[in-house]
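Write out a record, fold above all:
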Amino acid sequence: MIHKATQGVGITDRLYAPRRKAAVDAGMLWGAYHFNTGESVAAQVKHFLAAAEPDAGTLMALDFEDGASNMSLAQARAFLEAIDAAIGRPAALYSGNRIKEQIAHADAETRAFFGKHKLWLCQYGPAPKLVDCNGEPLPWAKYFLWQYTGDGSGPTPHDVPGIGRRMDVSHYAGTDDELKAEWTA
């Protein structure tokens, strides 16, 4: 389970901590994500780390999608660099059309930087497409996770029995053991 922990510099999901405890107690893998804004990157990083309280088993991710106030690609990079330094490993990047539009204009070094981070691809539909808005290959050879449905849109299932309805559902192309090994690697 990957749960929203924070947004910007002042929003913390009040259900993050109790759901984390329940998920970890049930033996589930746990992750936290931060929804980007155009506010101070340093302040967003500080807020995210304080709320998420990551440990060695916590997947950390930046949600880089359109919102009311967006991060630039340079700010997303600065955010990931700071999180990477704080947790001692690369964080993941959650994005879809936004990264495909932004990365198309990036230089080779920037593309390589992002390519070192796991891609949690948000793309509703029957098959993932790892190309940018110009049809050029993305810097990821494969996605880590593929969110193929959410909020009732995209292919089924939209519900997870016992958990909820109209959920965001992601796919991992591997076994449970492979997912566990790759979760925070």
Remarks:
- The helical segments are 16-25, 41-52, 73-87, 97-102, 108-115, 176-182.
- The chain has one domain: 2-182.
